[in-house]
Amino acid sequence: MDTILNWINENSGLIIHYGIQAVIALVIFLLGGRVAKFCSNLTEKAFEKKKVDKAVGSFVSSIVYAIVFMATILMALSQIGIETTSFIAILGAAGLAVGLALQGSLSNFASGVLIILLRPFKSGDYVEAGGKAGTVKKIEIFSTELRTPDNKVIIMPNSKIMSDSIINYSRESTRRIDLVIGVGYDADLRKAKEVLKSVLDQESRILKDPAYNVSVSELADSSVNFIVRPWVNSGDYWPTYWSLIENIKIALDDADITIPFPQMDVHLHKQD
pTM for the full model? Predict the structure, then answer.
């Protein structure tokens, strides 16, 4: 015990010096974390003021946070006497090893950068990507967040999105509804066509330009098929789609035009 006390007395100045440096390093680390968060929030707000896509702002702010926080760690280490140049070299070598082990994560990061640069979609778009569909909420460094119509959250790796085809249902202001309506072979085709047109004419959400198309497309096994292709604003797609399905069925029933359905005739033969 006396030996320890003597050592402390002999090296008290050095202990105080390194203690102060350690406290300063801790303060730098704690303040640096807050500064990194502040810079991240400031970046995101700046993008919002410029009316840049929220997903882009979220992505860039994440990178800003990572850079500032890494700089804070290096400053704190330098304060307690660790040679940062050597540390950076060691960090680089370790980074290479970790990079090889985390190729998937780096692929997600690179794909996130490509999403920001190429902008195949933006926040608020309804897309189908990587086998999933939903509204884009956020684009992060490694993943993109989608929300389904039934309010499920899908966290999709960026690499999976960029490695597959992307369908953006919201980019264009208008969309075409494609319906196939079958009528019986005994139906009056001219009358059926007029009934279909009348339903479209009564739907106010259907655009006049481009004009809709109603034509016979196929003589199928059990029905004569019409294609019904009206154009609507993208936001009106599903309400109009559902409304047309219902109103076409009602209108054809009122006109005594049958819509064929699969059926099977069973013949029983009586043996003597």
Answer: 0.58
